[in-house]
Prior knowledge:
- This protein is of the alpha+beta class.
- Among the domains are: 55-156, no CATH class; 405-569, no CATH class.
- The protein contains 23 helices and eleven strands.
- It has helices at residues 2-28, 35-75, 77-98, 100-128, 135-156, 158-167, 176-182, 194-205, 209-212, 249-267, 271-274, 279-293, 296-309, 344-349, 354-372, 405-419, 423-432, 442-456, 466-472, 474-479, 489-505, 511-540, 549-569; strands at 215-216, 222-223, 227-233, 239-245, 316-317, 330-334, 339-340, 374-376, 384-386, 392-394, 400-402.
- The strands form three sheets. Strands 1, 2, 3, 4 and 6 form a five-stranded antiparallel β-sheet that branches. Strands 5-10-9-7 form a four-stranded mixed β-sheet. It has a two-stranded antiparallel sheet with strand order 8-11.
- Strand 2 and strand 3 form a beta hairpin.
- It is globular.
- Residues 1-36 have low confidence and may be disordered.
Amino acid sequence: MAAIEREEMERAGAQGSEDAKAKTRLALVKPGASAVGQAGEAEDFEARARSWRGLWRMLQIVRVLGTMSLYLYLNDYDIRAAFNARVAAKRLAEAKARGRSEHFKARVRDLFLRRALDKLVRAVRYFVYRGAEGSDSKERQLERQGVWLKENLIGLGPTFIKIGQALGTRADLLPLAYIKELALLQDQVPPFPNEEAFARIEAELGRPVSEAFAEFDSEPIASASLGQVYRALMHTGEEVAVKVQRPRLRETVGFDIAVLARITRRLSRYPSFTENADWDGMLREFRETISEEMDYAREGKNAERFRQNFREWRPVRVPRIHWTHTTARVITMEFIRGTKVIDLDGLRARRISPVKVNRLLVRAYLKQLLEDGFFHADPHPGNLLVMDTGHLAFFDFGMVGRITPELQSKMIDAFFHVVGRDTEGLAQDLINLDFLKPGVDPERIRPVVEGLFRHYLNLKLGDVNFKELTYDLAEVMYEYPFRLPSNFTYIIRALMTLEGIGLVTDPGFSFFETARPYAKEFMLKREGKQFRRLLLDKITGRDEGRINWSKMWKLAKLAAKTYLEDGKRK
Length: 570
């Protein structure tokens, strides 16, 4: 009976709450209207408010991203203008061959379109840079732009701080001055109030902070895009790091992604913006990845899986998760102290070789990509520490990538061809890995790709001017439909970040040269295991498929060559 009375009281309380909300809505609309009309007007008002808020947010985002795009366009305009001039000269020559009339029309178009646009762009650039064309003046302008970009991304909130972190690893896309500023987004994001953090921890763990922990620092030791970290002590005396999520994070990120999807849909109407990149696929992958990253319980499971994959690797450490103090929005883990992988003076002071650390990092990533099919997708220096013992510790497993066995096999084929300098094989790899749009005849582009690989494969990645390479390839990109597959977004990002770390630790660093012996090791291990399985299935009659003996012969030759090289080194 008492339970029924309590239920009735709760229902009455809920009804009272709804009545209070209704009265509040009635107070917002004109007196004299009917209750039904008032409620309808209130809902309409809320819908309009959401619509206006979305429009205002989209304008803010377009302003920041549009201004950044304008800056990048103006910074690289000389290279772009040289490319445009080459294309125009080619078109004029073709028009001249078709006759005097066609040649005249082409010259008029060139004069009133390309040349006029060139003058306009140079005038805009003069205004933006205030006439500063000297290297020192331009560098100062780039530094100011980098600060502006960083501050505006922080102002846009967690979603765009995360995007800024990703851009901060892309030295192939952005000027160095931008990279330096965006690098600060890795661990120097403004924190949110401690009161909100403590309230979130208590709500998630279901008890006061003083009961959950023996000791808890009053200020965060780090603040990032999605959360901030505090040092604490468990009642067992173990030192831990407690990461707590920012308030209203899911709502904010979900709203921003919806706005970005709307912008992407509008851009898709203009093929020139979308033909060389799968923007829809990239946004979809970003949505899936950041959704995982906002689930700290999933992050803990990712860390456990990573530790399991590296259980036989003594030099690699992963902090242990305290599951009794972990939820979807709070994660508690072992506290590990160390030195950043790019702090060369700090490493040398501890008698640790930065070059050896970098080689361990490259080897660990090749294992993730070529053997495990599960990789840490955010390897920036803030997520990697070198302990005083020399162990390499990985942190923050919210952003991970997964590689299907089929894609992994294709990537191993590509490594085979890189190691063997097989340009014909690499051209086929581009086709197999979907770097070409569906429906394209691969034979048309194979000679072009082979020529490009012959030229650039012998260079160290650090020696390639990516901006100039982009425009060297531009004519090919316009004529042939290359694109970046969405499933490579985080793989390429991780590899570019690794190369950036490598160049800091060793100016002569070459990713392919460093990776070569380890890539051979993982290829031999994985492909050898697969060959043994196929052979056993063949003998026992469980598989009637054909064994790729050509590939096995290449594998045997590679194994023999590796054995001989190891013997010489010994």
